[in-house]
């Protein structure tokens, strides 16, 4: 099976548009949109509970995408919908709930972000331990170097908060939830995969119900009538969900899970750039140094996998 074939379109005579775009440009866009989620979370915390914003961002995306995906979803078997819904619950509800609830219980934001940055290592360990995949030592070295760079960037924001001890496991479990969903999606047969937009709609739909349950237990699900709340929902729905998650799955169709996840090591410094541009937060040479170190790690992963692909071909 050709890994570059469009999953949503079985015909090779009509290539998908994203295959005409260089992968590095898609990955750059992924970094911008994925890191926007952390900025959106910080912006929204002044206007509403984190899970309420996440719930309404799922609602907005579900409503926007429905006219474009209704026909495709109606033609899909219930078994395929169920499998993709499971992936969506792990990738979106599991990941976001773990991170946001950990922070809500007192886990420092910097520490929660560092747990989220463990995604490439989590993917590699799961692939090796559960799927039996063997990664070259240069890939492992690149992952460790990339993590060191991410830790260097977030070092100034790291602190041990006063959250209950068990709460520190929530961001880690959220990261593992996304890692499992990524490997599940990557190894799902093409015949059981949805197109990009139907898949994103289904993920937001099932995750919306999960967030409604979590937030509904704590309070009302009614939207807060304020410009700040509306802007928070629109920001995270457009950039973080449609942009971030959409590009994540798109890149995953073009490259290995290890490469796509390793690129996210650059998410912390890009997030700092967002914060500098939007909140006038200061930048430092430590951030620049961390970005360089992460870049070296990512380069090592990408170069090693490219060599292995060339040898196979």
Automatic annotation (TrEMBL):
Residues that span the membrane, as ranges: 20-41, 47-69, 81-104, 110-132, 139-159, 165-184, 196-214, 226-248, 260-277, 283-302
GO cellular component: membrane
Pfam families: EamA (PF00892)
UniProt-annotated location(s): Membrane
Domain EamA: 28-154, 166-302
UniProt keyword list: Membrane, Transmembrane, Transmembrane helix
Topology term for the membrane: Multi-pass membrane protein
Main localization of the protein described in the UniProt heading: membrane
Stated family: Belongs to the EamA transporter family.
Protein name (Swiss-Prot/TrEMBL): DMT family transporter
């Amino acid at each position: 099976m050709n890994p570059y074939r469009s999953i949503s379109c079985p015909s090779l005579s009509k290539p998908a548009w994203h295959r005409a775009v260089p992968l590095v440009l898609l990955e750059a866009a992924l970094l911008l949109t994925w890191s926007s989620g952390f900025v959106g979370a910080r912006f929204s915390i002044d206007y509403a509970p984190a899970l309420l914003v996440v719930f309404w961002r799922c609602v907005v995306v579900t409503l926007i995408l429905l006219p474009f995906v209704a026909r495709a979803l109606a033609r899909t078997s219930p078994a395929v919908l169920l499998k993709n819904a499971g992936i969506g619950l792990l990738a979106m509800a599991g990941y976001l709930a773990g991170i946001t609830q950990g922070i809500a219980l007192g886990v420092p934001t910097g520490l929660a972000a560092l747990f989220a940055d463990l995604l490439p290592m989590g993917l590699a360990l799961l692939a090796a331990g559960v799927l039996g995949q063997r990664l070259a030592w240069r890939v492992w070295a690149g992952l460790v170097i990339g993590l060191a760079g991410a830790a260097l960037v977030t070092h100034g924001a790291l602190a041990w908060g006063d959250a209950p001890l068990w709460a520190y496991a929530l961001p880690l479990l959220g990261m593992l939830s996304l890692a499992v969903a990524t490997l599940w999606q990557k190894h799902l047969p093409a015949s059981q995969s949805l197109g990009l937009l139907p898949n994103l709609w289904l993920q937001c739909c099932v995750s919306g119900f999960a967030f409604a349950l979590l937030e509904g237990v704590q309070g009302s699900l009614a939207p807060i009538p304020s410009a700040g709340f509306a802007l928070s929902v629109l920001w995270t729905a457009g950039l973080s969900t449609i942009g971030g998650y959409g590009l994540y799955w798109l890149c995953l169709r073009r490259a290995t899970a290890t490469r796509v996840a390793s690129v996210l090591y650059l998410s912390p410094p890009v997030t700092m750039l967002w914060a500098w541009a939007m909140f006038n937060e200061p930048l430092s040479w430590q951030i620049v140094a961390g970005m360089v170190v992460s870049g070296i790690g990512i380069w090592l992963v990408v170069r090693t996998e490219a060599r292995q692909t060339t040898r196979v071909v």
